[in-house]
Design a protein that fits this description.
This protein has about 180 residues and is α+β, with helices and mostly antiparallel strands. It has helices spanning about 5-20, 25-30, 50-55, 85-90, 105-110, 150-155, 170-175, 175-180; strands at about 1-5, 30, 35-40, 45-50, 70-75, 80, 95-100, 115, 120, 130-135, 140-145, 160-170. The protein folds into 2 domains: about 1-90, Nuclear Transport Factor 2, Chain: A, CATH 3.10.450.220; about 95-175, Roll (Archaeosine Trna-guanine Transglycosylase, Chain: A, domain 4), CATH 2.30.130. It has 8 helices and 12 strands. The chain is elongated, with a radius of gyration of 17 Å.
């Protein structure tokens, strides 16, 4: 596993700050030890430094992965978060969207969230802000990007898309062959 290049580290931290803001520091300096991000075959892994030291005895070709896969870099150097990062990012999320119980299944099938499916939304969220999508019972369901700001949502038509779908916990089943 290798360190992220400066360019890729910048892309990763910009994307993280889009979802969790200044809480990135809490993600790295945790009470149970220091964690870091490493790259292996264009995938970004979140791993404890203690586990990372233990994995150094394996060669590049022998190592499948170490830690939790946070995302993958595309050929155009864009980072797409995998759903495995959800449980690490959800507690630190600045902006959240809750979907109605009648729309949870639609979101888990990969559909965008219209205003009619919106249960609640955090205040002062801007347009194109990264959000974590929750069920009304506070279960994290996935990631999204707001299509409209919080103030625009109040006056929007019920069929207007409020949040664009990025990934969800239903991806494990839908993309089982290609995700990992």
């Amino acid at each position: 596993m290798k360190r992220l290049s400066e360019e890729r580290a910048k892309i990763l931290f910009e994307k993280l700050s889009k979802f969790i803001g200044t809480n990135v520091r809490q993600l790295i300096d945790r009470p149970d030890g220091t964690y870091c991000f490493r790259e292996h075959k264009d995938r970004v892994y979140y791993v404890s430094e203690r586990i990372l030291k233990l994995s150094e005895c394996f060669g590049y070709k022998q190592l499948v992965c170490v830690g939790t896969c946070f995302g993958k870099f595309s050929k155009t150097n864009k980072l797409k978060f995998h759903i495995t990062a959800l449980y690490y990012l959800a507690p630190y999320a600045q902006y959240k969207v809750w979907v109605k119980p009648s729309f949870e299944q639609q979101f888990l099938y990969g559909n965008h969230i219209p205003k009619s499916g919106l249960g609640r939304i955090t205040e002062n969220a801007g347009q194109y802000q990264g959000v974590v999508v929750y069920s009304m019972s506070d279960l994290p369901l996935g990631f999204g990007v707001l299509a409209r700001s919080t103030t625009d949502c109040k006056t929007a038509d019920p069929l207007t898309t409020v949040c664009f779908h990025q990934s969800d916990i239903g991806e494990y089943i839908r993309a089982e062959d290609t995700l990992f």
